[in-house]
Amino acid sequence: MTRRQYFVIILILGTLSTISPFAIDMYLPGFPAIARDLHTSIAQVQLSLTAYFIGISAGQLLYGPLLDRYGRKRPLYVGLTVYMLASLGCALTNSIETLIAMRLLQALGGCVGLVAAQALVRDLFPINQTAQVFSLLTLVVAVSPMIAPTVGGYATTAFGWHAIFIILAGITALILIAIHFALPDGRQPDPTLSLRPTAVLANFYTVLKQPQFLTYALAGGFATSAPFAYIAGSPDVFMNIYHVSEQEYGWIFAALAVGIIAPTQLNHILLKRFRSEQIVHTVLIYQSVVGLLLVVGTWAGWYNQYSLIVMLFLFLCGQGLTNPNASALSLAPFVRHAGSAAALMGSFRMGLGAIVSGVVSLLHNNTAIPMVATMTVCVVTGLVTLLIGEKAVRQMQPTATEESLSEATL
Questions:
Q1: Quick check: is 145 in a domain?
Q2: d(CA 2, CA 106)
Q3: What is the CATH number of the domain that holds 319?
Q4: Residue range 350-372, pLDDT digits in tens
Q5: How many domains does the chain have?
Q6: Helices marked H in 71-95 — which ranges?
Q7: Is 151 exposed, middle or buried (0-12, 13-18, 19+ CB in 10 A)?
Q8: Which of 26, 250, 298, 387 is least buried, going by the fewest C-beta atoms within 10 A?
Q9: By residue range, what is the domain housing residue 295?
Q10: What's the pLDDT score for residue 400?
Q11: Is the pLDDT of residue 336 over 70?
Q12: Coil, strand or helix: which one is 290?
């Protein structure tokens, strides 16, 4: 693989991974305008975000087996087409109920990008490079929170919030063209994999009984659900409590995204000296401490708008290290069932995201407490899960699984 091919593949996989983050982040500045236009509350608009997370969680479980059975590209074409049509449906809606339904459909289509991107990393790169590749993907994904809310804020001000969904449809059309002409096929279709419910469940069970997958998918899933609490709560915290404008909120969101980007680049250096397991362990302890300080300080009234931004920045720094390393460790044991493993991992994360965003909405009390408390519970739960699962992982023989033996014969 030449340097140019490597760059193009990373770029396409990164954009595939950003489809859902863009759909989440880009319309956040439009929450107040959507609520006014559809004659509803921001809490109701937040439910459209929860619906999106539910759709991602359920959809990934469907696409995992499809990607293993039919190859990577055919499900991508179908899913992204559904996403584009649903995006146009969001743009044309005139009720909050229709918006919620269209967001659910949009998520069911767009989530194919998340699963396919992770499976293709496992297909196209050696296992000892996957953590670094996931770091690069995290870098591309992390750029989206810098761009998406800012673009969304200006688009809402200039053209109205409906324009946001038209832009999303247009971006996805460009990604489809790039997939067709520049993305390798990855692992070929496997006709021997049945799509009968019993066979699909058996494949998922094969993945779930692998201790390394279970430990790092659960621990990483809990930890990486923390930003969903921030995503769900931050529009209300900054625009309603601190009264910043849509454009100002977009810039705040972009600035905090740097907290994810910078550690992503640091991960390349750390991986030369430390194992992914060590990095995940240390970062979860760090985030738990910062999270507890966030909760105590918010409850005690220590923070104003700017000091809260600083504390959120310090907390989010951990995401740029946890996500790529936990993802690589989760998928490492698999070759044949990489699509199913990626689907389970992504479904768990987005399912938690749906729960977390719903919890923040339900606990809404005109303070930042629901947001920061939920964020902290997520990372502390991830740390506890990791500590419990590490013993089982240490006892596991790394070459004893059918997946590892399959890889050795490829």
A1: yes
A2: 35
A3: 1.20.1250.20
A4: 777 778 877 777 777 777 788 88
A5: 1
A6: 73-92
A7: buried
A8: 387
A9: 3-187+206-405
A10: 41
A11: no
A12: helix
Distance CA 230, CA 232 (A): 6
Q: What is the pLDDT of residues 182-200, one digit of tens each?
A: 888 877 777 777 777 787 7
CA 62, 64, 70, 76 dihedral sign is: positive
Integer Cα distance of 191 and 51 in angstroms: 33
Residue 201, SS3 per DSSP: helix
81 pLDDT band, cuts 50/70/90, is: very high
pTM of the full structure: 0.68
Which uninterrupted H or E stretch holds 7? helix 3-25
Q: What DSSP letter does each residue of 352-382 carry, written as one string? A: HHHHHHHHHHHT--SSSHHHHHHHHHHHHHH
Burial of 174: CB neighbours in 10 Å, binned 0-12, 13-18, 19+: exposed
Q: Is the distance from CB of 267 to CB of 321 less than 8 angstroms? A: yes
- 327 contacts 213 by C-beta, under 8 angstroms: no
